[in-house]
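Protein entry
_____________
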Amino acid sequence: MGIGLGVQAGPYAPPAGQSGSTAISKDSASFVAWATGSQEFQKGPNAGDSGYPESNVLGPAEGTSFDVLPLGDGGSIVLTFAQPITNGAGADFAVFENGFSDTFLELAFVEVSSNGVDYILFPSVSLTPGPVSAFGTLDTTDVDGLAGKYRQGFGTPFDLEDLVGEPGLNVNAITHVRITDVIGDGSTQDHLGNDIYDPHGTTGTSGFDLDAIGVLNQVPEPSVLAFLLTALALLRVWKRSR
C-alpha cells in the first residue's frame, strides 16, 4: 500500500492532511507576511519560456499550477521581505511549490542570509533509494529539510532554530531566502551525503516551480511611540553631554 493509504515508508512527516504532517495551508491565519521582492534569478536549463514573471513569487501563495516561477534544472532565486524574518516559536517561514499530488514532488534547497551576502543552507535528508523517472513519484516520509515536500497549496515549514550558532548568521533578522532547485538525478547530496532524487527529465518546465514564501515570525515594524521614545532618549543623552 502507498502513502495515500496511510502507510509510511520513511521516518519523516507525511503528506498534507495526514496525522503528523507539518504542511501549512496557504490560507492559514499563522502567516503574517509574504515575500515582497526578488533578485538574483538564475534561470536553469529547461525552465520553459518567459511567460512566468518573477512577480509570480511575490505576495500570498496561489496554490495553482500556473502562477509560479519555474527555476529550471539547478536554477535559483533570492526572495526578500519588507521586515526581516525572526526566530520565534516553531517554524518561521514556509516555502510553497506547485506539485499537483502528494507524490509528484520537485525539491529545492533552502538557504537564508541576514546580510544578503553570506548564506547558510538548511540541513536536509533524502532517503529516496534510487532514480525517479520524469513523472515518477516520491514518498514524502523519505524527505526532510527540502522545499517542495508538500503538494500545491501547502507550504514546507523551516525553523531558524535549526541554524542557531551558524557563523555570520543572525537568526533574528533574516532578510534574504535563496531557493535552489535540486537536480534530482543523484548528482547532488543531502547533508548526510545521500544522493538526492526527484522527478528528472521532465519536459516543459523542469525543476522546482516556486509559488511563494510565507512568513510566520517577523520582526515587527517600529511603532511611532517606539520612535518617539528613542528620539527622546537620544535628546536626553545629547543634553547631558553639553
Observations:
- Residues 145 and 191 are 10 Å apart (CA to CA).
- The chain is about 5% helix and 30% strand.
- The chain has one domain: 3-240.
